[in-house]
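Dear colleagues,

I hope this message finds you well. In preparation for our joint manuscript, I am sending the Thioredoxin-like protein CITRX, chloroplastic (Tetrabaena socialis) sequence together with its predicted structure, so that both groups work from identical material. I would be grateful if you could confirm receipt.
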Amino acid sequence: MSLLMNVSRRGAIGGLTQERAVAAKCLPRPVFAAASPFGHARSTARGSQGSAARRSVVARGMVEKITSEELEVAIATRETTIIVDFFATWCGPCLLLAKELEKVAETMDGKVKVVKIDVDENPDLANMLKIQGLPTIVFIPKENGKPALRTEGWLPAAQIMEIVGQMDAGQVAAPPMPSAAPEAAQ
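The corresponding structure tokens are as follows:
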């Protein structure tokens, strides 16, 4: 154990050392070998089951996978509320949310547009919007000037539809923004 602690301290300060390379050969091979830009591990040991699961995140007809450029166009030309799902193919809750978003898209056909953005394929947008937890859902109202709402984590379809309904009715208020500088007491 002291060798591993010593190696990790050296590795953190001085990069890869010869001791670290020797210690790495002694350790069992990790199941999660590839890392995403967000520091999360992606499984590379799933084989065909994993690739089928990853496809199910975006293979639905009613939910469209788009890029950051396509999102800008969708926002500028929107006629309905847009639900944007920021996801990753290696994210378990994202797989569950994909099914819920498909239900929302089918139930609210024409009243809402549901799109998905893969954070691994669009890291600049994810960093700009400070997407730190997955899945992250952003609700963009159909009216310009109204604030977007954002939530992290899995939500059931009924709750997503309730949020959209409240937004369309004008019943959802955005939390107050903190001021940049406190006002001076006079």
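For the figure legend, we might mention the following. The longest helix spans residues 92-107. Strands lie at 34-35, 41-42, 64-65, 81-87, 112-118, 136-140, 149-152.

With kind regards,
E.M.
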